[in-house]
Write a structure and sequence with these properties.
The chain is globular and about 50 Å long. A 5-stranded antiparallel beta sheet has the order 1-13-10-9-5, with no helix packed on it. Strands 4-6-7-8 form a 4-stranded antiparallel beta sheet, with no helix packed on it. Strands 2-3 form a two-stranded antiparallel ribbon. Strand 2 (about 40-45) and strand 3 (about 50-55) form a beta hairpin. The protein is of the alpha+beta class. It has helices at about 1-5, 80-85, 185-190, 215-225, and strands at about 25-30, 40-45, 50-55, 65-70, 100, 105-110, 125, 130-135, 140-145, 160-165, 170-175, 180-185, 205-210.
Length: about 220
Amino acid sequence: MAMASLNSSPNPSPGAVAVEGGKAYYFGTCSRSPFDPGRFPQSLNVANGRARLDNFDAASGNLWSFRFVGGHASVFSEPRMLAATSKTRGVEDSTPSRSAKLDQRKFTLSCLNLQANVDEQQAMYLGPDLSVVPDEGRAQLWQFAQVASTRNLLPGEMHLQIRAHGTEKLLCSDDRRLNVYLLKPADAAMLDPVTGNFIFNDTWEVTPDEDPPAELLENLLQSLS
């Protein structure tokens, strides 16, 4: 797709995965709490009109695309909008937590499957208050930083911290309450006073909506047999 190639990350750093604009992704949680075998994998979902967590295989509201400013798809690519968004909005582009390198490009997040009926699909966007908005001009602008993973990832998968442009706030999740928040790094690092575990997750496991290579699946099945 031309749009995706125009919006891919240029010259990613060694070990980094190129983020493709216009491509469909799932945003799974990277839990910082001990593994709970009774908890089904969760992902970013807006099926009820606001960002929250829901089962990874939910029927709607969980498929996302990056629409980069400067790519042909985004309304922010119009000359007037580009001039406005290029101005600093009061906060320097500081690096997110854990020394992740911030990608300087800005983007909106578009939900591709808010309606369960494919024939009724309409692009919707994640807004500044984490509700969905139909007008991309009212959507929140974001930036991301790739974070090194502590486990093997599938081809095209990546771990990202996502920050609201013009602020230091990170898009975070809470596994226990299934909520999604915008939090300052210090707040995102809060610990549960009882368990000592992190309360919030500040990173997302971003997985492309595509079948993994057959050879990879075959190797996985062999390792389990």
